[in-house]
Amino acid sequence: MSAGQLPRWVDYGLIPLINLIAAFLVSGLVVLLIGENPIDAVRVLIWGALGFGEGVGFTLFYATNFIFTGLAVAVAFHAGLFNIGGEGQAYVGGLGVALACLALDRIVPWWVTLPVAVAGAAVMGAAWAFIPAWLQAKRGSHIVITTIMFNFISYSLMVYLLVNVLAKPGSMQPETRTFEEGGRLPFLNDIQSLVDFGTAPVNLALVLALIASALVWVIIWRTRLGYEIRSFGANATAAVYAGMSPARIIIITMLISGGLSGMMALNEIMGSQHRLLIEFVAGYGFVGIAVALMGRAHPVGIILAAILFGMLYQGGAELAFEMPAISRDMIIVIQGLVILFAGALENLFRPAIVRIFTPSRAPAVQAG
Amino acid sequence: MKKLLTISVSTLAGLAFSAAAMAADINPAVLYDLGGKFDKSFNEAAFTGAEKFKADTGIGYRDFEIQNDAQREQALRNFAKRGQSPIIAIGFSQANAVEKVAKEFPDIQFAIVDSVIDLPNVRSIVFKEHEGSYIVGVAAALASKTGKVGFVGGMDIGLIRKFACGYKQGVMSVKSDAEVFENMTGDTGAAWNDPVKGGELAKSQFDKGADVVYHAAGGTGIGVLQAAHDAGKLGIGVDSNQNGLFPGSVLTSMLKRVDVAVAKTFEDAKNDAWSSGVQVLGLAEGGVDWALDDNNASLVNADMKAAVEKAKADIISGTVVVHDYMADNTCP
């Protein structure tokens, strides 16, 4: 991701901030249009997301999902690949988590199940990304199309498995049995006493998400593989000329990407719901695209963007609860505006800002 | 509430004081499933029931539409913390959340539609969809000239197979050699709200020779009924009375009275007649039924009406037992 000619704090801090403010201003107009007070709405939203322990807990819970799916999209970005399949990879990743938990939860404590569940999530998510990757690498089938198609295949596969194979007998609910203690990640509330998160389901997966962020940074910027991925993304022809194998890079990048998506299921399945259920991904995979765009495909940016979207989810829920005139669809409009301004219209204010910052500066030295 | 109290007291000169005070005590809430409040079907029926209660009694209610699974518990707790009671959760997917939160708030009355939770403060309301589907199956078989009828479901899950299975039994009870085509719309939440695909599935069934098609697919079913109307065939509605959507093309509707159940639950709480436990609403209890009104009077001849009413009476008396798919996950 090129930083252009701007100082990094402008590129990573000021521009996203301006985009965000613009999104909120437009949202405010919409709120005004339906006859509510936008200032009150913002106050409820921010209070709901950050004003009390439980709200913060929910914000971080959602953020955990977004960090995983955001990292997944970002890794693929670096190789110039657009992985739209986070939704399906996370869904199938849930299968890996659930199988590990169902097999082990009655015999071993959670910390024994955890590595198996992590492996299960990553392997299943990666496996789901492998076929589109292979098709792209060997057959030139466009990854955007194939990953989207694999989302639909995953929906069908999971409904079939949940209804016919994994559902508990005698229940009409398309879901597995609830895991015992050995298949549950501890809630943050139970393992620390600094902050009281109330009944929020924020759990140990948050720590895993932060570790994953650090690992992604190391892989992309501090390893030979990462160098290859970035070179390939910046200029595929040059990378081939330099002796790198495009097929290998595409497949490995997509495996990492799919594995990260799959690990989102740890937070939802092992951390919160404690059972595999239908449609648990609920769009987190797609929001990951916006998170990666807004976070500039950098782990730190992704963590911040993920927290922002966590705030929008949790604050939005409180807003819909407190102000019945603002329905759940309105919240989606606000989230959509943020995505629009932060992603699609990312360059709206850039030329003006470049003009403000460039005359006084010599051509910037581009840091990695 | 205070205003309401004052008005009742002044107008009725204290006569209705105790009732009004009781009324002021309840603070009902509805939690919809992922389909949302205006899904033209199941959740909307709950909304209709709550609105009816509001119109009848003047008591307002709160409601919430969830966006994801984590919000189920969160919304229930939010309601409970604010002292809302009774809190009614719509849809079987809410079961785990209701069970958890009902344990945390033993003094608050909860209710759930389409699932059973065994707790002293929870009322569980379930419907015998197979019975209602059976009698519309009887009507479908009698109305069909080709001996082939169709079924369009939303998602391929147990609940919808229960509808399909009851329907099939009803059809077979009239014509044992009849053919029933079954199609499901999709595998995501969109399956409940995809009228275009519903219409296409219905058309493909018409192409195979079906001339009556029953749907259990929420908003998708509007497309099914539309396709039946366009092709000059017959559709059968579900959940609400959909006879009026395409008068003359909707043979009947299988009514699932979620609206009555919601309004009744609120009224019971208001009148201090609350009870927990399981309410199984079938034909006998009026929880499911078929719809006969001006819109379909010309489609239902006397023989058909007699046959459907007989099937209904037989089920109520126990002479005919409709197999419930959910009991053993098979359909005879």
TrEMBL record, chain A:
CDD domains: TM_PBP1_transp_TpRbsC_like
Keywords linked to the UniProt accession: Cell membrane, Membrane, Transmembrane, Transmembrane helix
Signal peptide: none
UniProt membrane topology term: Multi-pass membrane protein
InterPro entries in UniProt: ABC_transp_permease
Transmembrane segments: 12-35, 114-135, 142-163, 202-220, 232-256, 276-293, 300-317, 329-349
Pfam families: BPD_transp_2
Superkingdom assignment: Bacteria
Compartment annotation: Cell membrane
Protein name as it appears in the record: ABC transporter permease
UniProt organism field: Roseibium aestuarii
Lineage: Bacteria, Pseudomonadati, Pseudomonadota, Alphaproteobacteria, Hyphomicrobiales
Automatic annotation (TrEMBL), chain B:
Pfam families attached to this UniProt entry: Bmp (PF02608)
Topological relation to the membrane, as annotated: Lipid-anchor
Cross-referenced SUPFAM superfamilies: Periplasmic binding protein-like I
Main subcellular location of this protein, as a coarse class: membrane
Stated name of the protein: BMP family protein
Family: Belongs to the BMP lipoprotein family.
Domain ABC transporter substrate-binding protein PnrA-like, residue spans: 32-318
InterPro entries, alphabetized: BMP_lipoprotein, Peripla_BP_I, PnrA-like
Record's keyword annotation contains Signal: yes
Signal peptide stretch: 1-23
Keywords carried by this UniProt record: Cell membrane, Lipoprotein, Membrane, Signal
Compartment(s) of residence: Cell membrane
Organism of origin: Roseibium aestuarii
Keyword rRNA processing: no
CDD domains: PBP1_PrnA-like (cd06354)
